[in-house]
Amino acid sequence: MLLSVVVPCMNEEASIPMLVERLIAATDAWRGDTEIVLVDDGSTDDTWSAICAQCAEHSAIRGLKLSMNRGHQVALTAGLMAAKGERIFMLDADLQDPPELLSDMMAMMDRGYDVVYGRRSERKGESWFKKVTAHGFYRVLNRLSDVPIPNDTGDFRLVTRRALDAVLQMPERARFIRGMFAWAGFRQIGIEYIRDPRVAGETKYPLSKMIRFAFDAMASFSIKPLQIATRMAFLTLIVAALMGVYVFGSLILYNTVAGWASTVLIISFFSGIQLLTLGIMGEYLGRLYVEAKGRPLFFVDEQAGDAVEPVVEKIANHQ
Fold first, then answer.
1. CATH class of 3-222+295-316
2. Cα distance between residue 316 and residue 310, in whole Å
3. Rounded to 10 degrees, what is the CA torsion of 236, 242, 243, 246?
4. What pTM value is reported for the model?
5. Fewest CB within 10 angstroms: 50, 75, 92, 249, which?
């Protein structure tokens, strides 16, 4: 198998027919040597029925249904673990990332690259708030991360088998796939494209999930938040020492001024710093707790299409 296409799907019933149509056209040059793996991430609509219908119509399509919603990154991991191709193409089901770019990515990979990722030069159909926060997210992440991660990139990419195998050896639960490929190394290059609006449905990343995803990314690839918390703790100690000098000086000079406002302000300031530091430490500690349990990332409920090997056992027991 030369090429595997992996697509995580969550409540994408309306997008599946157009997705498959464009993927079949985009992979026509490699017909007979391509598989398309659609992963249903615990959808609550008829996404799985739509996937099964496409499996019945096209022999190249395989479907995996997870036992419950595990999140985009875990669903993508499930598809990557099931993929059998020597080259693996990743994109989302909303078709904001054009599958037609595959031929250009394949040509660049023929030149010896292991990872060809898409870099968004323009984002159509998105609010100014989403554009500004996305722009800031990648810049802040790169300032905090120990590994340089390309700006304005998602999981839209083509990778070789050896690059994928390297990433699949990483067992962490809080997964940030694009960062994991950056950490793995190998020869990588970007290709710019214009990101289109969704073809149907609504975004699966509201503000709360975006914030959670952003912190997962930072915590997975950097300990700088802990270092910042330590520096803030030292800063508060310096401020406290200066305040102590001021208080004792006032007592000696009998220049004390009674006032609850300043007291409350100081207590609030130190309490906020302490709680922030504890919160950051708690996030890292919580991740250690989750990792220590060693549970499988997911379980597969059903499969559809031509499965050559018993992938359920292989991927469900992955550690």
1. alpha beta
2. 11
3. 180
4. 0.68
5. 249
